[in-house]
Write a structure and sequence with these properties.
The chain is an alpha/beta fold. It has 20 helices and 12 strands. β10, α10 (275-287) and β11 form a beta-alpha-beta unit.
């Protein structure tokens, strides 16, 4: 008799389809079971009987929404927790915390052994093709996943490194150097129809000794340079979404990558000590005609503001170099700063213990990135206006009142030069800041670092000299200054 299976993704922000649940759907449909997929705490399914409920999880900072979802469906099963299974990234990183909070023992790691979900067959669920049909159950005019037009899969698993800041060593502890992607693509074609693009979530494909074979598989699956899809001849793309490791990029491997429609090419630049390695890798990509590049830049781990600014600046300088080297290859690099969040953090706003960063600096970076919508644009003019001409100006921007950071430049700023680009209250801030001694700048940071209005007001009344006081005054009346300027 077919079993009734409920798949649940908590209602956190999620742009990628839940691959684990999609594979579970394939698994249960192969057994003849009825499968339903929902997002969040759905009252329409809560009172039904379900033989099994599977709940996925994402990052640790989705803790609150995930726990709420688990408890909601646990009550549905009349607290028979043996029929409720919780897996995913959060479940693998914080299993004890989930058990202590919900009474559910999470499934850790990959679903490569069906015994993890109390099944007696030998099917490797993680190796099954994902079921794309379930996505339509939750997509509507207000919510839609990205990359549903792509094959979602892996050509390797795990990573050869055990980086302190990365969760892969716990979620995929063993490095598997080769997975035949052709089989997954063929299965998807038969069951769900062809897909335009290929999105691979390998954590370190360049480390594989079988990299040549992986590229050969990708080309045999129809993803050669210049390949098109469908009657409309849309360009096909391959995206190693988790990034490529510059430490393993050789001329031979870059040549192989140039034979597939790689778009974008993602390379991480997590530490300034890898500057030479990173620059060499990017120049190698440019040499082989790679046009679109996306660069992950980790910050607030063990880096300083100087390190962070320099890594951003290196990409700007490389963009300028490639635009003027006479090769005709228009390689463009977008930087994507990613704030470090500890692997056991239950929210984003957590102190990592990095003495070089504070709440004020972190908030300032976030505001700048909100204006840019996430990426740091490749143009030098935009970069210097957004992040400052040097690291000292960068710090000054981060210490500004939030309203000043958001509203710094006049409408026609590109036609102007120097301080004329800045609104009057920002010019005043910069003049006052630049007049401070090193001691006074350190004192200003002490007042602002907790990003608390009460501390600013207290210091303004009692604890600082006139130079710092004038800057704190602008913090206390920032919204008034911005409104005043708009009215004028």
């Amino acid at each position: 008799m077919p079993k009734k299976i409920l798949l649940v993704e908590p209602a956190y922000r999620s742009k990628y389809p839940p691959l684990g649940l999609m594979k579970l759907s394939t698994y249960h449909k192969l057994k003849g079971d009825d499968v339903v997929f929902v997002r969040g705490c759905n009252p329409n399914v809560r009172d039904n009987f379900w033989d099994r409920v599977y709940i996925t999880s994402l990052f640790t900072y989705t803790w609150e929404e995930t726990i709420k979802t688990i408890m909601y469906y646990k009550e549905t099963l009349f607290k028979l927790s043996g029929k409720l299974f919780v897996g995913g990234i959060l479940a693998s990183l914080m299993p004890k915390e989930i058990f202590n909070t919900t009474g559910i023992q999470p499934i850790q790691g990959l679903l490569n052994d069906p015994k993890k979900i109390a099944q007696d067959d030998d099917v490797n669920i993680d190796g099954l093709p994902p079921d794309y049909t379930i996505l339509k159950d939750v997509e509507n005019q207000n919510f839609c996943y990205q990359n549903t037009d792509a094959y979602l899969g892996y050509t390797t698993r795990g990573c050869v490194w055990k980086c302190e800041f990365c969760a892969v060593k716990q979620f995929e502890p063993t490095y598997t150097p080769y997975i035949d992607i052709k089989k997954m693509i063929e299965s998807v074609n038969v069951k769900f129809g062809e897909r335009q693009n290929l999105l691979l979530m390998d954590n370190n494909v360049l480390a594989s000794p079988k990299f040549n074979k992986i590229i050969d598989d990708i080309k045999k699956a129809g993803f050669t340079k210049g390949a098109v899809f469908g009657k409309t001849k849309r360009k096909r793309t391959v995206d190693f979404n988790q990034g490529l490791d510059a430490r393993f990029l050789t001329e031979e491997k870059m040549k192989l990558l140039s034979e597939i429609p790689l778009d974008p090419m993602r390379i991480a630049f997590d530490n300034i000590k890898y500057k030479d390695t990173y620059v060499k890798a990017v120049r190698l990509a440019h040499k082989y005609g790679q046009k679109s590049m996306s660069n992950y830049i980790l910050y607030n781990f063990k880096d300083s503001l100087e390190d962070f600014y320099e890594r951003l600046r290196i990409n700007i300088d490389l963009n300028e170099e490639f635009a003027n080297d006479g090769t005709g290859v228009k390689t463009i690099i977008y930087s994507f700063p990613m704030r470090y969040i500890p692997l056991d953090a239950k929210n984003r706003d957590v102190d990592t213990g990095n003495r070089f960063w504070n709440k004020r600096y972190l908030r300032g970076v976030k505001i700048i990135l909100n204006v840019t919508k996430g990426p740091v644009m490749p143009g030098a003019e935009f970069f210097f206006q957004a992040f400052g001409n040097d690291v000292e100006e960068f710090k000054a921007i981060l210490l500004m009142p939030e309203d000043f950071i958001r509203n710094r430049v006049v409408k026609n700023w590109k036609k102007l030069k120097g301080s004329k680009r800045l609104k009057s209250y920002v010019r005043r801030w910069m003049d006052l800041y630049n007049s401070l001694s090193a001691i006074d700048r350190n004192k200003l940071v002490e007042v602002l670092e907790q990003n608390q209005d009460e501390m600013i007001a207290e210091a303004y009344k009692n604890g600082v000299n006139k130079n710092i006081k004038d800057l704190l005054y602008l913090h206390l009346r920032a919204d008034t200054e911005v409104k005043k300027y708009k009215n004028e």
